[in-house]
Every structure is written in structure tokens, then in C-alpha cells.
Write a structure and sequence with these properties.
Elements lengths: L7 H19 L4 E2 L1 H8 L3 H9 L11 E2 H12 L5 E6 L3 H9 L7 E8 L8 E2 L2 E5 L3 H8 L3 E4 L3 H13 L4 E4 L13 E4 L2 H13 L11
Parallel strand pairs: 3-4, 3-7, 4-6, 7-8, 8-9
Antiparallel strand pairs: 1-2, 5-6
């Protein structure tokens, strides 16, 4: 029997569980009930139990959840120890910020290469890595075999570059380009990041708070 697909909302809640449980570890909390975890996270206890049951369930009746064990299991599901190889394309202001401030290693990834088409960046180092010119991309991918690309590039350049990256073995994209990569490449895995959309959602909710309670930390 084929595995049942896990819904996108459940998947998107997993990192949040992992983050909250890490905070509980820092508080030296050893165990927690679904009711208390729900209270802290603004969810329902039944929602938490349903989410965890998608992966077999983790708690013990009458005991609740061991905080460290639960975080470790969710981390395993998320693949935080896998260290998937990542390259970043576009070392402008956004790319530099992502490379510098995102702790890739704590999130199951390892940033191994940065590329940009601007020749003036050839002598620049970002997050401890040299910025390579784009003409070195093919050789780098053939040797280091990254699986994920972070695209911090203009929308107009995204499709051609994505086609090249897919041909070089890239399977996943963290996409800041605002171009819908899956239109022509439905086989790839894409996580689109639209910072402007997020800000506009906030602006909407500032004026319509009664309509937005369900949007909080989904």
C-alpha cells in the first residue's frame, strides 16, 4: 500500500513545533502535555495530536510528550541532520542577507557555494565563502553535486537559470525570484518566498483583525 500523502499545512507546522520544543528545552522542561503545548502555540490539542498521528504518534497517555525526544523525532522527520548541499545564486543585498543570517546547518542544509554574474564580486567573500562567477557553476555542480539552489535573482533570469540548474542535478529551489518555476518544471520541489506578499498580508490584517485570526502561525 502506498504511503498516504502528508498535507501541506501539517508539513508547514513541523518547523514551528521544532522551534517551540527547542525553546522548551532551553527552559529545562522535560515533558509537556498536548494541552499545554497547544496553549503555548495557539493551536488546539486535537490539532497537535492529529498532526503527530500522521507520523505514528509520539506521546504516552497520561504522560504527554518527552520534550527532547519529541524534538529529536521531529528533527529526524525534517531531516535537520542530513546536511543537504545548497548553492546560492545572486550575491546582491538579498543574497548576502540570506547567506549571512540564515543558519543553514541548523536546518538540515549546508551552504557550499555562492555565485553571481557581477564580475566586481569576484574578490568578495560572503558567509565565509568566495563568490564565484557564473561560468564556474557547471564545473562546481558536477564536482560538489548540490541538491538545492537558493535563487536571489531577478524574475527575468529565473527560468533559464532554473533549466540549467535542473540539468545539473538540482532538485529543490528556495525561490526568491517571484517567478513560478513549476509552470514549466512540475517535477521539481519549490518553496517560494514572497516577502512583499507577506507584508501586504500583514497590512490587510492590520485593518481587518476580525478576519485574520485564522492566518496567525498556520
Amino acid at each position: 500500500m502506498a504511503k498516504q500523502a502528508i498535507s501541506t499545512p501539517v508539513i508547514r507546522r513541523l518547523p514551528r513545533y521544532y522551534r517551540f520544543l527547542g525553546e522548551l528545552e532551553l527552559e529545562k522542561m522535560e515533558r509537556i502535555s498536548s494541552k499545554e503545548l497547544a496553549r503555548r502555540m495557539g493551536l488546539s490539542a486535537s490539532q497537535i495530536r492529529q498532526d503527530f498521528n500522521c507520523f505514528g504518534g509520539f506521546g504516552q497517555q497520561g504522560y504527554g510528550y518527552n520534550v527532547s525526544e519529541l524534538r529529536e523525532k521531529i528533527g529526524f522527520i525534517l531531516g535537520v541532520n542530513e546536511k543537504t548541499g545548497v548553492i546560492l545564486i545572486g550575491a546582491g543585498n538579498l543574497g548576502k542577507a540570506v547567506a549571512t543570517h540564515m543558519d543553514f546547518r541548523k536546518r538540515g542544509c549546508e551552504l557550499i557555494g555562492i555565485f553571481d554574474s557581477n564580475p566586481e564580486l569576484g574578490s568578495v567573500t560572503v558567509a565565509g565563502l568566495p563568490v564565484h562567477s557564473m561560468d564556474k557553476l557547471t564545473a562546481f555542480c558536477e564536482q560538489s553535486k548540490p541538491q538545492v539552489a537558493v535563487l536571489c535573482i531577478p524574475k527575468g533570469a529565473a527560468q533559464e537559470l532554473a533549466d540549467q540548474l535542473i540539468s545539473l542535478g538540482i532538485r529543490g529551489f528556495w525561490n526568491f525570484s517571484h517567478f513560478d518555476l513549476r509552470i514549466n518544471n512540475p517535477q521539481i520541489i519549490v518553496e517560494n518566498v514572497h516577502l512583499g506578499d507577506s507584508l501586504m498580508t500583514l497590512a490587510y490584517c492590520m485593518h481587518r483583525e476580525d478576519e485574520c485570526s485564522s492566518l496567525q502561525d498556520e
